[in-house]
Amino acid sequence: xxxxxxxxxxxxxxxxxxxxxxxxxxMIQQVLEGDDSSQTYDSEIDATGLYLFPGVIxxxxxxxxxGMTYKADIASESRTAAAGGVTSYMxxxxxxxxxTTLELLEDKFQRAAAQSRVNYSFFFGATNDNVxxxxxxxxxxxxxxxxxxxxxxxxxxxxxxxxxxxxxxxSPLLLMAHCEDTGxxxxxxxxxxxxxxxxxxxxxxYHSRIRSVEACYASSSMAVQLAxxxxxxxxxxxxxxARELELFENKPIEEKQITAEVVIAHLMFSTEDYDRLGTRIxxxxxxxxxxxxxxxxxxxxxxxxxxxxTDHAPHLLNEKQGGALKAASGMPMIQFSLVSMLExxxxxxxxxxxxxDLMSHNPARLFKIEKRGYIRPGYxxxxxxxxPNGNWQVGDGRYYTKCGWTPxxxxxxxxxxxxxxVNGITAYCDGIVVDGIRGKELVFNA
Length: 446
Fold this sequence. Notes:
The chain has helices at 74-83, 102-115, 161-170, 182-195, 207-210, 213-230, 264-268, 274-277, 290-299, 337-346, 354-367, and strands spanning 2-12, 15-24, 27-33, 43-46, 51-54, 56-61, 86-91, 119-122, 124-125, 145-148, 175-178, 234-236, 258-263, 307-309, 383-387, 392-393, 412-413, 416-422, 425-429, 432-433. The chain is an alpha/beta fold and 446 residues long. It has two domains: 2-52 and 374-433, Urease, subunit C, domain 1 (Roll), CATH 2.30.40.10; 56-367, Metal-dependent hydrolases (TIM Barrel). Strand 10 (145-148), helix 3 and strand 11 (175-178) form a beta-alpha-beta unit.
């Protein structure tokens, strides 16, 4: 089947132009300057006035399956991804049970094959006890190994020095690190309890002082040092502080041993938003000061940040009750990542041409994803059409996450995702997620 997308403003590989894209079955066949009326097609999409981007690749999501499907699952959150222009995701291992064995990893792949509306893969979780298992991972199927170098749950905190060093020395795959120093966090909690005479919770505005800049920097700098000493390929997740940016370099991503991700929450929110949004914006690492946010936004264009992701992490609202200690950490954001970045472009934070670099091209280059992340002939037709004059307000019925809320509620966006195409097939169009569409397993050219 041959389809043409006509007269879109195409944003791809550092430039934008008005053109058309020809899709044959799953693949992009042609990328044209202007229009092509010389051929006939099985279907046509008139994209006049719309912007065409390569589909977003989100390298950091939590879809809660298995074990926590009462608040999210692969089916519901991949629907949400499609509604946000996200055509591929890589999911984290801290589910229940945790993805720390080959059997549990395979179970996730099977679940996604049956349920995922968009393309998928899964990180393997490191523990103090499973380092030897990493050699059995298939580097063409698994994007990397997630290592929690800070406060986590169960046995996913890698806190034995010998295990951590062995992990960095021997992992055959990229290490994606959650960096917060547990000792500093615990000391901060003790100090707050002493100050507040034994209280077991504190207002959420103190979350960023408990999971502090110092806690982030101490852990990130240790991870960077270990990577330099061992030669490990390191990707630091959700960088949240200006100070951590000192650890990274501005050079082509293929030349980097150490790369950095920032997530939408740390670009959109700051400590000034706690009074308005409360625990709805509580996440780990915590959102930091306006000055930290400004530095992260600047790093989107100065080459220090390589990838923008979401850390999409649904919870029910009743799990968000409490304060800095008791409320669950995490927020559902995957539907709003692309439109949020486009709004920031309108504000002058970054050029619109930089957005595909951070959200599509660089994830594809970093993880060496086969034939995805670009609008190129011979690549899979993973595309999203966005309306620059959509002018819509987030509200009930306009978001798709199973948990039923978002911190973006009542926010007005100028940009609106109109259509998401996955492997050449429309998976989402104007408020409707198309039933029956299934994504493919990502392939990595290790």
